[in-house]
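Same chain as my last thread, 84 residues:
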Amino acid sequence: MADHYTPLEKYLRELPANQDEITLTFEHIEQVLSGPLPLSAQEDVAWWGNQKQGTQVETIAWMNAGWMVDTVDLKEKWVRLVRQ
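reply #2:
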């Protein structure tokens, strides 16, 4: 399952070094992943947590790329990440 999020990690790593934040729609993330986000990503803010350890393999993608989730809007379906 962790491999599913590798394209997101790659996408974030390739952003310009001087870019300190990015806001992505869930739809854009799904395009990057070439597949849907799980239902829990659309319904539970906890899915977007910032932890390198544990069972939430998706967090490893943005954390390893040097980013952290700052804000999630489940209603409008977007997430803002900030560079660590």
